[in-house]
Queue: 4 jobs
Job 1
Amino acid sequence: MAKHASNSIIKFADDTTVVALITNNDKTAYREEVRALEVWCQENNLSLNVNKTKEMIVGVRKQQREHPPIHINGTVVERVVSFKFLGIHITDNLKWSTNTVSVVKKAQQRLFNLRRLKKCGLAPKTITNFYRCTIESLLSGCITAWYGNCSAHNHKALQRVVRSAQRITGGKLPALQDTHTTRCHRKAKKIIKDINHPSHCLFTPLSSRRRGQYRCIKAGTERLKNSFYLKAIRLLNSHD
């Protein structure tokens, strides 16, 4: 549980991530949170691996202020411009080229196995199932979070993999844009039904005259217009 409302602590297996919102360049709450985590680990006989601990400052402003480094157990924590979080590459400028390049590279490697299966004479249905399990699952992993803000170049690179797989399988495969749309709509409906979801409050029903219609956060920038939330609102209002 975070000590400050502006901070969040995310735990997954043996990994712990501290996320902090820094306002007016005031990093007091953030530094206190890191210090509290360090003390808690010491009191509970847990050792923090500082060499594997990374710090990343996320921001889209052209001019960034200098931020003093964080220390854990007297050691400076390395500051990075990107890191892998739950399988997704996140960068400090909130762009997705690094993640896309990684996904495309892995997917192309798996296309080799798809070609080998075809040469072995496996049935088209079996080859397609292999594609869906090993390649499509990779291309669509957390797609609601990153696909909407990918560049046109990234979209083309991803779709080329799908077209290559389609030529190998010999059957029609769903385009990633269609997969993204379906996943966004499905996820939005789940969030609306779950009052405990952190994003539930972002979906506000409109007046009773427009039953089934919702509004979300203001689309002030192009990046926000392409976000999951605005995409979800458009889909909900068009389907319902």
Job 2
Amino acid sequence: MSGGVDSAVAAARMLDAGHEVVGVHLALSRSAKTLREGARGCCTIEDAGDARRVADRLGIPFYVWDMAGAFQRDVIDDFVAEYEAGRTPNPCLRCNEKIKFAALLDKALALGFDAVATGHYAQVVEGTAGRELHRAVDEGKDQSYVLGVLDADQLARSFFPLGDTTKPQIREEAAARGFAVAKKPDSHDICFIADGNTRGWLTERLGERPGEIVDEVSGEVVGAHQGSYGFTVGQRRGLGLERSSLDGSPRFVTGVDARDNRVFIGTSDLLGVRHVVGQSARWCGPAPSGEVRVGAQLRAHGEEIPATARVEACDGGEGQGGESRLVVDLDEPVRGVAPGQSVVLYDGTRVVGSATIATTAR
């Protein structure tokens, strides 16, 4: 129970369904702030209090579980390391994979509970081969993308009671139940960067590392930066360049070379990606066999693109180990796809699985 409206209604619905429900708020910060800043951030002392008041109204036990250490190690430290290596991670997927449906679920099972229920907008459907993860009915709120890291065993012990309802309906239900959080703003952006300034937050931790901004086509040095970790493929704003000196056309980040601390820029025609290779694949059910037609989504609120996917054995190259890799060929180019992001595969509304993008090609 995050202290928001979604997890409040999720708890109420699980109780209505006849389950024995215990509310748990995760303390993910070693020095939690007292108040939220509007819709930014989460896991504040105020949020814990909101969750407790909902639990009291429902008449269920409520606990705060300290997972700050695991969150620091598996989410925040991973986030910093990925940006430092020139990649663009999605911390929400990592949190679901390592915290909510791993550390939290493991602790719950050890204490004798059967499952974890959350306020995510997704649906679990009983299929012929077991439980399946599907998109929510509210397309605008669908969160199946950030749940694409769950495997079959985790799905078997997960409930998403809100997947068949739209967000306005959830707020109406919360108000009808008398929850004070009915109109509370949704949290967004990265929860541990409350002011939304990712580059500034990373600079505090990694320090300034001056380097060159290079035109990808000409090879000319056209500017300077204070750390390649502050850039991601597809980025247009914050380049610090005078457009007039670059023929007046807008420029975008086309690549980040962390080893040489260089940022490459180019025109929009250089951004389209048609080929993606992913590693560390996770499957929500059986892994696909052979070449399959799928829908591929490459960012949390991105469009689903028709694609062909296949699983291949790795050649043992750098960073690959001996594991397999997922190869995805997109029917149409997608702009701004960066290594470190995740590709999530769909068969209709069903989530097939996901992988972390290692390389891309145009």
Job 3
Amino acid sequence: MAVASSPSSLVDVDRVRQDVDEILAGHVADLRLELEHLGPAVTPLVEAVERMLSGGKRLRAAFCYWSWRAHGGTDLGTAPGAAGRVAASRATVLRVGAALELFQAAALFHDDVMDDSDTRRGKPSAHRHFAEVHQGAGWAGSARRFGESAAILLGDLSLIASERELALAVAGLPEAARLRVRGVFDRMRTEVTVGQYLDVLVQATPWGEDPVADEERARQVIRAKSARYSVEHPMALGATLAGADDGAVRRCRGIGLPLGEAFQLRDDLLGVFGDPGVTGKPAGDDLREGKRTVLVSRALREADLDARRLVLGRLGAPDLTTDGIDELRAVIVRTGADRQVEQLIAELADPALATLEGAALEEPGRSMLVELGRAAVDRQT
């Protein structure tokens, strides 16, 4: 696979990050004004939303924007799309990108509670932060429960914001175009929510006896929870906003799903081997959280009896030490599981990128989508 540009540099092209950030900043400002009459007690909620939105790669917004460009979207505004459909303006596409980022914020608030994650982008996760506030103030009741409740409500606030941004974005489109866009967005939100449940289910059910079946369940979670909303749906949204026909949208899905799965597999590798100074997560955090990933299922498949016992005994242990993480990493490397996952990433991404490179799409949209795809699967953060 060719060396990719960094995601950070790519999302800056054509001011995508800057313009989406301005929309998100406007949302935070509006939220602060809207809640002002409720008094200073709600200020920490607005600040927590602002912190979550201040990070992120903006890859989903970029996939949406450059898919719109690749399928004929222009800066000139509304234009006829395929089969008489209406193409959205750049402003509309960027607002849909902001809605994607707000939906991701909601998913992250909730995901951190379900995974009991300590950090998010190098800072305490929302439920940890609010638990610390509770404990420091000496308030009544459980600090942990208070923190989790606050984070759940923050996720709900972000979901409301995502719906608002989407509604504002598509308000000026004809009804048929508006319904097509909402159909893609609503399908994405439904799949991610069900994917979260599948993830919880996988974490709760017996695991380790059949690594092949374990891997298939892990990949099912990846597709539903992450892959589709990371790449497939943003690309499909961009094509839909450009007025592309159903065949073009299906092509986006065929390219986006394997790229999204490769994106999450890269995330799983970084969760075990990534540099904390780059990823913003503690070293080996996924092992401490006991995430049941393709990487771990491959290690179990290849491990001898003693190594299997070590993995099953220590994965997700609440008292897992740094030495314990190093031992688990050593098993993964010794079994070649990390190299197998790298190979799987290539098997998923390379054909998808080749299809994208050969597609009859507009420039520079097509080339930017190829570069974004490479960056998504080769990134170090």
Job 4
Amino acid sequence: MNWKGVFPAVTTKFHQDGSLDMDMFFKNLEAQVKAGVHGIILGGTLGESSVLSLEEKMVLTKETIKELNGQLPVILNIAEGATQDAIFWAHKAEELGASGLMLLPPMRYAADARETVTYFKAVAKSTRLPIMIYNNPVDYKTLVTLPMFEDLLDCENIQAVKESTRDISNVTRMINKFGDRYNILCGVDTLAMEELLMGASGWVAGLVCAFPKETVAIYNLLQEGKIEEALKIYRWFLPLLELDIHPKLVQYIKLAEQMAGIGTEYVRAPRLTLVGEERIKVENIIKRGLEHRPII
């Protein structure tokens, strides 16, 4: 598994009646592939995993792998409350042909450091798939600390971290402590350029769902050392990227996908599509972005 590049955390597309819209899902997937992304992440927050049935998650995983046909690695997110359920999904992901896993700490129960490390190790030992730990204490209330990552060093298939602590200096701390043992991927759109410049190897992106070309362009330009060129795109992009750090990021990004022509705004309850002043505000941000979209 090459944990480098842009990895869209793709949204799950629905029809207005709430059923899966695989045609629109594949249309967006095609746009991601065409833009040159480096992998696809299924079943994250943006994928509305918490409101998908077990069967729907399997369909999405199986059909994505089939559609991509080896063009890109497919990473399945695991966000479970029980260790046995996380292990079930690790086995199922391997069985369905996924390339890797993104693994959150235990959900709902606030596990301490020993319990979290034990959970991670149990999942890692249950599968041959490479794993990226999702470190997001802001949204999920569990901080995976440097000592915890040190305890995980013997799990060779734990290879990467989705860095979402909102602390840019944590990239440097990880590199100072572990060198290149863990690949670090920025998981916060508004900090992506900064973390890539500080040594992150990739970007688990949200607004890429609506703006794949621009996201990949920033990454590629930075790899080429063309910081000024990347900065011009990033400055245009920032008001849109800020849609990723709001509790309604799913609704906001799905509306952006719809306005960009590669998605629909339909979400599954309890989420509701945007209305009123909030909708107008978000539409205006997206409209301005589209009107001044850079030529890539």
